[in-house]
Amino acid sequence: AQKVTQAQTEISVVEKEDVTLDCVYETRDTTYYLFWYKQPPSGELVFLIRRNSFDEQNEISGRYSWNFQKSTSSFNFTITASQVVDSAVYFCALVDNAGNMLTFGGGTRLMVKP
Amino acid sequence: DVKVTQSSRYLVKRTGEKVFLECVQDMDHENMFWYRQDPGLGLRLIYFSYDVKMKEKGDIPEGYSVSREKKERFSLILESASTNQTSMYLCASKLGQGRQPQHFGDGTRLSIL
């Protein structure tokens, strides 16, 4: 069975601080995909990134960066110079190559204070 | 852009009522999903559908049923609502299998009194 763990339930930072959200996963599949979603207070989950299990290159998109390490089964998400608009719940999720069902972590609530 | 529309943002119903939550997507996606979201538990899959009239149980199907008569519409039905079904319900759709991301609606916050 697949499992995704986000150990940090809530993080509070002050604007302009860097923050890392942790994600650890378990799967027996050799081919799988990892996702991060953002859920702002409005409620809709917004897709941020997808990573496949064969691509361990780190990715950067503006202030966002992702660190995928297969050896530790982790897919961590870093926000550099955080802003108030980054305040949201962030979910990490996993799906195998053939599957349709996403397995979600419990989510991390990020609060960025001015 | 994919648009997934849920019929209500907020809904209040009484115990024992039959409740319908509607979801429509505009991108001809084969797959549609219903989740419930509870604090600390993340999103848990109730049902999904991979084609018209086809459905599969997710992790927590008890007390729920679904209907997919048309490709763009996926309905979640609470046959006899109970207070433990008070939750946020999220609908999603997806093209194809595996690697494609799911696209979510805004959610329906359902309260059962």
Strand portion of chain A, in percent?
over 45%
Morphology call of chain B: globular
Rg from Cα of chain B:
13 Å
Calculate the terminal CA-CA distance of chain B, rounded to whole Å. Answer: 37 Å
- The secondary structure category of chain B is mainly beta
Q: Count every helix of chain A, treating DSSP H or I runs of 4 or more residues as helices.
A: 0
Rounded to the nearest angstrom, the distance between the terminal CA atoms of chain A is 41 Å
Give the overall average pLDDT of chain B.
Answer: 93
Please give a structural write-up.
The complex is a heterodimer of chains A (114) and B (113). By secondary structure, chain A is mostly beta strands. Chain A has no helices and 12 strands. The radius of gyration of chain A is 14 Å and the shape is globular. Chain A starts with a strand and ends with a strand. The mean pLDDT of chain A is 91. Chain B has strands at residues 4-6, 10-13, 19-25, 31-38, 42-51, 54-57, 64-70, 73-78, 87-94, 103-104, 108-112. Chain B is mainly β and 113 residues long. In chain B, a hairpin with a 2-residue loop joins β5 (42-51) and β6 (54-57). Chain B is 0% helix and 57% strand. Chain A binds chain B through residues 4, 6, 9, 33, 35, 37, 42-47, 50, 52, 91, 95-102, 104-107, and chain B through 9, 31, 33, 40-45, 48, 50, 58, 88, 90, 92, 94, 97-99, 101-107, 109.
Give the arrangement of secondary structure elements:
The complex is a heterodimer of chains A (114) and B (113).
Chain A lengths: L2 E3 L4 E5 L4 E3 L2 E3 L5 E8 L6 E7 L6 E3 L2 E6 L4 E6 L8 E9 L6 E2 L3 E6 L1
Parallel strand pairs in A: 2-12
Antiparallel strand pairs in A: 1-4, 3-9, 5-6, 5-10, 7-8, 8-9, 10-11, 10-12
Chain B lengths: L3 E3 L3 E4 L5 E7 L5 E8 L3 E10 L2 E4 L6 E7 L2 E6 L8 E8 L8 E2 L3 E5 L1
Parallel strand pairs in B: 2-11
Antiparallel strand pairs in B: 1-3, 3-8, 4-5, 4-9, 5-6, 7-8, 9-10, 9-11
